[in-house]
Amino acid sequence: MLSIFKSIPTHMDYKGQKLAEQIFQGIILVSAAIGFIYGLIIEQFGWTVYIVLAGFAVSCVLTLPPWPMYRKNPLNWQPAVPETSCEPSQKPQENAPKKKKHK
Amino acid sequence: MNTVLSRANSLFAFSLSVMAALTFGCFITTAFKDRRVPVDIHVSRVMLKNVDDFTGPRERSDLGFITFDLSADILLIDPIFDWNVKQLFLYLSAEYATRNNALNQVVLWDKIVLRGESTKLILRDMKSKYFFFDDGNGLRANKNITLTLSWNVVPNAGILPLVAGHGHVSLPFPESYETTRSY
User: Fold this and answer.
1) Selected residue of A53, A56, A67, A71 to mutate for chain B interface (largest B Cβ count, 10 A)
2) pTM for the whole structure
3) What rounded mean pLDDT belongs to chain B?
4) Residues B117, B121, B127, CA angle at the centre, nearest 5°?
């Protein structure tokens, strides 16, 4: 069953991640400020907690699923290099310099 | 932040940190408040007995019975309940000195007043809730026994202040014991 969840793509590109982080930090800070002032006015701390929880729920909906606005700047990967027969010989040459560095 | 779980993790941790800061703010707004209220205590009846105290080591100890009246102004109590107060714990204690001990303090009665309940603090002819045993026989003919009402303000966040009430009453105890008759 877990494979179903793992197959849903949830990635965002880097600019999208930055945008998502700014969005949820902003929403939670704003709801904390509103909640603090409202709780102070009506003299009940419970309302402060409720308003912050509402802000948390809103930012969950806005930032957890990978909306298209977070995928506007995709990374351009290099085109895939087809595998050739000379690749296995390159690996022992890569290992040798590493052993020299350890000493 | 590439997967849902890592985004959810950082969102949740941020929310908790913000919540902790708000709780500290709630504590700071009420930390330096004066919570004393003048209280009127009046004692209507005092009786003294000398009985076996099975919780103590000696043969017989003094046992006092006090009936008292308590009243405090409601308009002054209500401002104590701000957004950082969960309940008030009131207790009446008696303080005196005897030959054996320099200072004795005994709690006679307590009450919990939750926020939202009526703060009507006018009580008449209340009997003490707990036994007023002395450590020995020091209550008889004691010249000065002081009753004070103190309270604990139990907050939602922060320190528990212990406030001594403003009112107190001193009274001497009777010279002789009352004997109970057994049939």
Assistant:
1) A56
2) 0.72
3) 81
4) 115
